[in-house]
Every structure is written in C-alpha cells, then in structure tokens.
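Meet our chain:
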Amino acid sequence: MATLSQIVLIAAVIAAGLIAGLFYAYTCSVMPGLGRADARTYVTGMREINIAILNGWFALSFGGAPLLAAAAAVLHFRSELRPALPWLIGGFALLLVMLIVTMAINVPLNNALEAGFDGDSTDFEALRAKFEGVWERWNLVRTLAAIGGFGALVGGLIVHVRA
C-alpha cells in the first residue's frame, strides 16, 4: 500500500511534469508560431492565450507543483526517507523560481500588453516590440526552472522507491 509520502511525491512529479511540458510547448511551438505572424496577430493571439490560460487546470499544475513539492519534502524529513530529501528540496526550489519568474515578470508583461491594447487604434508593432523579446527570454528561464524541478522530483522519486 502506498504511503502518504509516496502519494504526495507522485502527485508533485505529475504536476511538475505538466507545468514543465506547458512551458516547454510555449518555448518550442507557441511563441515561434506567433513569432511568424504579423504584429496585430501576435498581440491579439497573446491576449487571447493570456485569457484562456487562466483556468483551474492551469492553476492545479502551476500552483500545485511547488506546493506538492514542498509537502513531499516535509514528509521526507523522517530518517528512513531522508535520502530523497536533497532532490525534493532542489525540485521545490526550482519550481519556486518558475513561480516567482512568472508572477514577477511574465504576468506583469501580460498585464502591460493588455493595458496597451486599445482596439483598432493600437500601435501593434510598438506593443509587440516592448513585449516579445523580454517575455520570451523569461519564458525560457521559467521553462528551464520547471524542467529542472521536474527532473529533480523524478530523481527524488527514484531515490524514494529504492530506499
């Protein structure tokens, strides 16, 4: 029978994998695809994506991954489970970086994009120029942090299973 520590760790791995995969998809398909579009399509597309992503499924993985990683780490403070602890702390730290980058940089850029939109009178080229490069660079940072967090949690799960 699975223990609480195993269940929470598996849930953390799943949530981290989902959020890492989402940000990876942005990095290698969504943003390059939008990058091929004209400025009006780019800005309109990003605005619609920013609206669509605010849903419960996204929230479960985005907020759930670091919370579950923290819970898994706490549950592994028992002596027989401690070998996995460094992996879990590392996974939590990287997922926290992903969360902080998103909330401190990507979300404010999304909000600025929305605030700069004024219907047909919008200067789409200028709005895109202020947004695109900065947002994509920080998206890559959060993508790498999320992938690293996922990998560390997988490492912790392997150590946990072997213990």
